[in-house]
Amino acid sequence: TCKVIDFESSVVLLSRFKKDYESVDMVVTDFEMPNLRGNELIEELRKIKPNIKIVVTSAWLDTTSSEGKELIGKEVKSLEPDLILAKPYPENWVTMVDELLD
């Protein structure tokens, strides 16, 4: 069983993670967020817990549409997350996330 906790911002998530990182196995985060972008959040999470599972989601991952989207797609891939989920999510996204927790 896993427990899911949602946060209103990446800043709040990071604050909580710093206090309770040992009980966290995975973080699912959007890439484009105010205050603390996905790349910054991932860097901070990995400083605290290098083996944390990271799932990045974004509506801006279509690398065929425009230069801006292509750059975001490349930036997300360069972070080497455990899983990248483009929005809208594929039908099997729950299975994909579940496999990371096994």
Structural description of this entry:
By secondary structure, this protein is an alpha/beta fold. The chain has one domain (10-101): Response regulator (Rossmann fold, 3-Layer(aba) Sandwich), CATH 3.40.50.2300. 42% of the residues lie in helices and 15% in strands. The chain is built from 4 helices and 3 strands; from the N terminus they run H-E-H-E-H-E-H. Helix 1 packs parallel to helix 2 (38-48). The radius of gyration is 14 Å and the shape is globular.
For this entry, give a set of tags.
3 strands; 102 residues; Rossmann fold
Structure at a glance:
The protein is built from four helices and three strands. It is an alpha/beta fold.
CATH architectural name: 3-Layer(aba) Sandwich
Question: Major sheet: size, sense and barrel closure?
Answer: 3 strands, parallel
Oligomer: single chain
Tell me the domain tally.
Answer: 1
**CATH fold assignment:** Rossmann fold
Q: How many H/I helices?
A: 4
Mean pLDDT: 85
The low-confidence parts are none
Quick one: overall form?
Answer: globular
Radius of gyration from CA coordinates: 14 Å
Distance between the termini: 11 Å
The level 1 CATH classification is Alpha Beta
Order of helices and strands: HEHEHEH
Strands, count:
3
CATH superfamily (homologous) name: Response regulator
